[in-house]
Amino acid sequence: MPDVRLASPQGRWLLFTTVLGSGMVLLDSTVVNVALPRIGRDLDADLAVLQWTVNAYMVTLAGLILLGGALGDRFGRRRVFVLGVVWFAVASLLCGLAPNAGVLVAARALQGVGGALLTPGSLALIQASFHPDDRGRAVGLWSGFGGVGAAVGPFLGGWLVDGPGWRWVFLVNVPLALLCVPVALRHVPESSEGVAHGRFDVLGAALGALALALVTYALIEAHAGTWAVGLAAGAGLLAAVAFVAVERRRPDPMMPPDVFASRQFTAVNLVTLCVYAAFGGFFFLAVLQLQVVSGYSALGAGTALLPTTVLMLLFSARSGELAERIGPRLPLTVGPLLCAAGMLLMVRAGPDASYAADVLPALLVLGLGMVTLVAPLTATVLGSVDTARAGLASGINNAAARAAGLVAVAALPLLAGMGPQAYRSADAFDAAFGRSMLWCAGVLVAGAVLAWATVRRPAPDCGHPECRTHCGVTAPPLEGHRPAAPPGDRLNP
Predict the structure, then answer these.
(1) Tens digits of residue pLDDT in 66-106
(2) Taking a C-beta distance cutoff of 8 angstroms, is the pair 445, 278 a contact?
(3) Does some domain include residue 454?
(4) Which among 32, 87, 13 has a CA at the least distance from the CA of 280?
(5) Which of 7, 26, 111, 218 qualifies as a FRET site for 142, CA 20 to 30 Å off?
(6) Which residues are listed as membrane-spanning (predicted)?
């Protein structure tokens, strides 16, 4: 039985290093967007490079995050966590030193691999190490400190871009890793499940990541209309079909098809795709809109987005409690509608936009929508499968959200008619941003309709989230593995 107590020095060091490790990934997911205009200017890059700066990271993270959790369970969660931190730091160093756009994009893909290794291990170490009496409080502190890090991220990113330069958005991870690794090696106990696992589904992970990469390439480069684009699109679809076929035939798949036998689980993942596609597109384009069109500095744009994160930090736990009382159907319907309204209001953030009159109201409405839906979304995912599969269900939901976001970042500029140089023209970008918000709002409305039609209250004895506070805007929180369910337990219908 795990026996680390929260009040002990080892418990405090363990919490510190897991917060620091996961905070690196959480910070990276929020600060990089703020730096995009400056990256484009310094590297003389077009819009496609900015899209790849975001999506190269998301492709490998989304495609490999389930495999990363399995590696930790087999070979040791601390070992894989430390490997992930080191990998992430080295890739961040390469990003910061990148002499051109090609090197930056390749290094961002490597960053995603590191993120896939360390992200699942952060919470798993807490759940595997702390005494059961302290575990709930430790998870609460971990998610709360993570929320503070997410709130600080855009502000820190803006300050770095306007100050020492955009390269420090990546280089700041190096000293954090140098602090995190020795603390982890000295104070964090090793844990694993050893022989409890079968073979790794490396082929499934590779096919999933390949499908995402090829489809993303086809969407980003579609404006060129070349044969390579069509070939990539076809190959991406074939890779997706092959991924499904492999998962259906393997005895130990990364994404077991039978988990989708739960209609509730399938439905809430479709809602997740709608919601996080809109979020991914919005947060990619909003910081560009504020800097390119409204004339904000990088610091001003980063700080402007703080209300959404602060609202989630303050109220996400209470939203989860409310959803437990009234059921998830209403929050998962009202939340996306509020988000859609906030994104439509954001269209007012044009040239010389007033923050108080044009930007803040949109972000407050958007933040209220996110508060309303994120915690119930996670709870509904966990409540739709048996307790023993909670970690798997959460990992699939997290990966689906990240995949939806990267596809949106690739597709929205195409759908909105943004050319390769659109972000260099305030008028052209402003018009395309308005069209993009209509697309985002439409996807959110579709998610709300789907939630109202399909989501039902989970069974009373279902699993509940351990992470009560969540401020990430790229994916719902990951939940760790739970104790095995009694024999005979099945997926909820």
Answers:
(1) 888 888 888 888 999 999 999 999 999 999 999 999 999 99
(2) no
(3) yes
(4) 32
(5) 111
(6) 12-36, 48-68, 80-99, 105-126, 138-160, 166-188, 200-220, 226-246, 267-290, 296-317, 329-347, 359-383, 395-416, 436-455
